[in-house]
Amino acid sequence: MTLRDFRRQADAVRSIPLETVLTHWGAQRDRRDRHQWRTERGPLSVTGAKFFNWHGNEGGGGAIDLVMHLSGCDVHAAVGWLEQQLGSAPAATSSTSAYSRPSSPRLGAHTKPCPHLPVANLAHLERVRHYLTKQRRLAAGVLEPLIEAGKVYADRRANAVFLMVAGKANRPIGAELRGTGQRIWRGLAPGTCKDAGYFWIGLPGSDEIVLCESAIDAISCFQLRPASICISTAGVRPNPAWLHPLMARGYDIYCGFDDDQPGNAASRQMIRQHPTIKRLRPPAHDWNDALKASL
Length: 295
Prior knowledge:
This protein is of the alpha+beta class. The protein has helices spanning 3-14, 18-25, 63-71, 75-86, 89-92, 125-135, 140-148, 215-224, 243-248, 261-273, 287-294, and strands at residues 28-29, 36-39, 42-47, 50-53, 58-61, 152-154, 160-166, 171-178, 186-188, 200-201, 208-212, 229-232, 252-255, 278-279. Mean pLDDT is 84; it is low at 88-114.
């Protein structure tokens, strides 16, 4: 690549809104001050195209500077990541893009590894939205905030992608996939480790958690039980590694696996290992069936 080519590439991504970069990176906006963001490098203040890290007493301007600050990478790696993950500035302004932490070694040794998440494809978003609202009967009022937050999106094959995260920072670690064509199938994004995190929906202040077998079931369960935090175990799993930290926080946890032989067997196994967990059978075979029956 010539210097002129690189400058052209940098000019195309430099003006990507900082809020878009931070959202894709997995940073959390302060609810009381929308100019403040919580990142692994410390709190950032964002004003227009400028940012400042109060803990590090350093700042900068533009999307390229921000990625360099967050990752510790050089300018070439920052430009490459922005182009790969977000494209040019006009395309990146959409709130429906999925966010993904960088996984390439070119971003330097200070960044945490992450599976390669499916790239968002806005051309297929309407098909995914139609599948989830018309066939699965998920309420638009529940689904749209997930799409806007990048927790649900469409990939290039028109699969519905449900982002799996870990920790208080909601760091992306993988994704559940659900086909939306005539052949319905489910799977995981390449490199996803189910023990590292999960898809979830709910109010952070809730003291009740319902464990479901899939992201669609978790959203359906939340629609039926809006006071709960609903988590997908991405399959029938009686003892996921992330369950223990949740139990230690004092949540009332319910096993909401499907009301069938695998779901009931896994529920019994989970409760034998963790007697404080209670069984909560969906009113139908699964939570999505229960949701559709209730409408």
